[in-house]
């Protein structure tokens, strides 16, 4: 991942390292950031570059904090969950796949909040000149994907929907930097990936969408906490307030896509137009929803799929790793995500 590949096309290292893949790099431990707020309660938060801290700050949601937030930055979702399980942080935000692998490893975690966005950024891409027109055309073809990532599950589910299995394609396990290079040079026939890589490939790498995750992936992201933090009344109160600020920040993102794209680009090195494409395709469409039975059931499908592929060590009940106390009056997880319309 650290090799410089096609500098004009490759994403900055900080963003490449933030991909939510399943196998945790042991060098992904958090780096201590600064502290916001004041008070006698400190909430230790695990974050990724350009994610929760950045959006909260841009939306003005770190003002007037009645408690302290100590930020720690991690390279990806899995090491955040390692830190949560080890009580090194109280809470952190991740994609839909890291909690499955963490739970399979019997980590000490609880999913406490969810947000639902479009699946338009979860794609299988081919080159514009490719003869492949539909998912079933992938039979016998080579597909790049990050092993154990949300894109890996999307590939499995998309193939199944087309009447194929993962054994019907030649899977090449590559992290985004290497996959981008392979895709750009025509070394693979297709690439299963997520935003903002989708937006980048469409704009800069002559990519074309073969299929999206619509109807096959759940479009969920999660906030995950340590059970002991939830048992601490003062920290639980701070977590409730923190989740409320995240919801308000997400509302701000939807209403200010251009402003957020500019901030996000500056934080991560994404070109502004790629960032804006990703905001309007995926990032800005997300809305906070309840961690309810449909959400749990969709995560259970992911868990069962990876267990069947023997990529996780055991079968388990995802519901055992969920705490619904913060659902409140949030809409159901099946609620439609936001949209910027066809002309966006």
From TrEMBL:
From the broadest rank down, the organism's phylogenetic lineage runs: Bacteria, Bacillati, Actinomycetota, Actinomycetes, Kitasatosporales
Name of this protein? Putative aliphatic sulfonates-binding protein
Task: List UniProt keywords, sorted A-Z.
Answer: Signal, Transport
**Record NCBIfam families:** SsuA_fam (TIGR01728)
Span of the signal peptide = 1-19
SMART domains cross-referenced by the UniProt entry: PBPb (SM00062)
Q: What does this protein do?
A: Part of a binding-protein-dependent transport system for aliphatic sulfonates. Putative binding protein.
* UniProt cross-references to PROSITE patterns, sorted A to Z: PROKAR_LIPOPROTEIN
Report the GO molecular function annotations: ATPase-coupled transmembrane transporter activity
Start-end of Basic and acidic residues biased regions: 35-47
User: Record's GO cellular component, any one?
Assistant: membrane
Q: Where is this region: Disordered?
A: 26-47
Organism source for this protein?
Streptomyces melanosporofaciens
* All residue ranges annotated as the Solute-binding protein family 3/N-terminal domain in the record: 42-256
Task: Give the similarity note.
Answer: Belongs to the bacterial solute-binding protein SsuA/TauA family.
